[in-house]
Design a protein that fits this description.
Blueprint (H helix, E strand, L loop, with lengths): L15 H11 L6 E4 L7 E2 L3 E2 L9 E2 L3 E4 L13 E9 L14 E4 L11 E4 L3 E4 L2 E4 L9 E2 L10 E3 L7 H9 L4 E5 L3 E7 L3 E2 L10 E2 L2 H11 L3 E8 L3 H9 L6 E5 L10 H7 L3 E5 L3 E2 L5 E5 L2 E6 L3 H19 L9 E7 L1 E3 L5 E11 L2 E6 L10 H4 L2 E5 L5 E3 L3 E6 L5
Parallel strand pairs: 6-7, 14-17, 14-18, 15-16, 18-22, 20-25, 23-26
Antiparallel strand pairs: 1-13, 2-13, 3-12, 4-11, 5-7, 5-8, 6-10, 9-10, 19-21, 21-22, 23-29, 24-28, 25-26, 25-27, 27-29
Helix pairs in contact: 3-6, 4-5
The protein binds adenosine monophosphate (AMP) and magnesium ion.
The site of magnesium ion (MG) has 4 residues, from loops.
């Protein structure tokens, strides 16, 4: 009698670049929404913004001093000041009811509208004055210390185009033209589900055989950092009906991230569970290191990434595939982390024929960026990610780089 033998049958690894292409093909910007200005920070603009009026809306003084006609003070000097009667004063916020005529002046403050009749401002420091007379000690040319109407923006100027990310300056400019609402791409809603019979919450007591669920927390942070809105589905046991219930709760999300259960273990059931509720697999298993068992596909409108359970693999697969996707859904025209060339210190090794991402510490030196691998290397060692501020990329076919070699590095943070 022969004993039954089992043989693992798995699909071949998909090329890394092809996997990126397939993910990219599914990631289109979400439908724009109109939001109040105070909710627009960090969002990507979905409309062209045109200035409805000039900024500043009127010509104003850039200094505290006296509004004059340049012609009247042409001969002024410290030795031979020109004395002018003061017709009144204009404060910032005044409507501009004061006007001056030939041979007259008006007291004016920074930001106040230049009174009709005046064509220059003399700084306070170049004058002496009392209540109704000013002695001007220097000449000024027409236009001096006047910020002309429309200097910053003219009516009809196209200020911002779709695809522009709104930061502090953009918010200020939008406010300066009186915009209270703006059309932007919304943040993607990202459901996160971790799986594994061994997982405990931080507050649970550590018992033999169990570990604490860290991916739920790293993924939550990564989602937030990428600009997504988190929908926490908690940790599910490796049980088909439990997982199916959790997955069903992700229907309203734009993206579902699952963690664990996508490898070839007996309880790796994620793909099967997902497919039982209508998931369409686009690929499973990529020539990536770490992150090989990555599963990707669609569940209705929801993009699904089945991330590997190993904490570092999960984080790296997120960086390689999920983060750029979340940025694309937000309309970001530059969804990728910056990439730089860097010199290797020490040695970095990776597997043959897979794209390898090595956790590295990136430092900025006079000659350029230098990277050194962060230890310990195993993909369960999450602590290494605290030190890592970059991922050095070893392309397929490169198994080893040494001191002095150049690599491409994905910057996760600012180099030292
Ligand atoms: P899996 O992908 O489910 O086979 O898990 C691979 C490894 O990652 C195992 O050692 C798991 O115990 C571990 N792991 C899975 N999920 C998590 C998690 N959420 N937090 C920390 N470790 C995990
Ligand atoms: Mg598992």
């Amino acid at each position: 009698m022969t004993r039954p033998t089992r043989r693992l049958e798995v699909v071949p690894l998909l090329g890394f670049d092809e996997a990126v292409r397939r993910v990219r093909a599914e990631a289109r910007a979400l439908d724009p929404v109109t939001v109040p200005l105070d909710e627009a920070y960090g969002r990507v603009l979905a409309e062209t913004v045109v200035a409805p009026h000039p900024v500043p809306p009127f010509s104003c003084s850039t200094v505290d001093g006296f509004a004059v006609r340049a012609d009247d003070v042409r001969s002024a000097s410290p030795e031979r000041p020109v004395e002018l009667p003061v017709r009144g004063e204009v404060m910032a916020g005044d409507r501009g009811e004061v006007a001056i005529g030939d041979g007259e002046a008006a007291r004016i403050m920074t930001g106040a509208p230049v009174p009709p009749g005046a064509d220059a401002i003399v700084m306070l420091e170049w004058t002496s004055w009392d209540l109704d007379r000013v002695r001007v000690e220097r000449s000024v040319s027409a236009g001096s210390f006047i910020r002309p109407r429309g200097e910053d923006l003219s009516a009809g100027d196209r200020i911002l185009e779709p695809g522009h990310r709104l930061g502090p300056a953009e918010q200020g400019v939008l406010a300066s033209i009186g915009r209270r609402k703006v059309s932007v791409f919304p943040p993607p809603r990202v459901a996160v589900l971790t799986t594994g019979d061994e997982l405990l919450d931080p507050e649970e007591e550590l018992v033999p055989g169990k570990i604490r669920d860290s991916n739920r927390w790293t993924l939550a942070g990564q989602v937030r950092e990428a600009g997504g809105v988190l929908l926490d589905l908690g940790a599910g046991r490796d049980d088909r009906s439990v997982l199916r219930d959790r997955v069903e709760r992700s229907r309203a999300a734009d993206v579902l991230l699952t963690s664990g259960g996508v490898s070839v273990g007996d309880r790796d059931r994620m793909q099967e569970v997902l497919e039982s509720v209508g998931f369409r697999t686009i690929f499973w298993r990529v020539a990536s290191s770490p992150g090989k068992p990555l599963l990707f596909g669609r569940l209705g409108q929801t993009l699904v990434f089945g991330l590997p359970g190993n904490p570092v693999s999960s984080m790296v697969a997120f960086e390689a595939f999920v983060r750029p996707t979340l940025r694309r859904l937000q309309g970001d025209p530059r969804p990728e982390r910056p990439r730089r060339r860097a010199e290797v210190m020490g040695e970095i090794t990776g597997p043959a024929n897979r794209r390898h991402f090595a956790r590295v510490r990136v430092t900025s030196q006079a000659e350029g960026l230098v990277v050194r691998e962060v230890e310990p290397r195993g993909s369960g060692n999450l602590r290494s990610m605290i030190r890592a501020n970059g991922l050095a990329i070893l392309p397929e076919g490169v198994e080893r780089v040494r001191s002095g070699d150049e690599v491409e590095v994905l910057l996760l943070g600012t180099p030292d």
